[in-house]
Amino acid sequence: MHTPELTLIIMQTKEPVSRFGFVVSKKTAKRAVDRNRIKRILRESIHHLLPTIPTGLDCVFIAKQNFAEKHTTEIEPEIKNLLLKKDN
Question: Considering the entire predicted model, what is its pTM?
Answer without folding.
Answer: 0.85
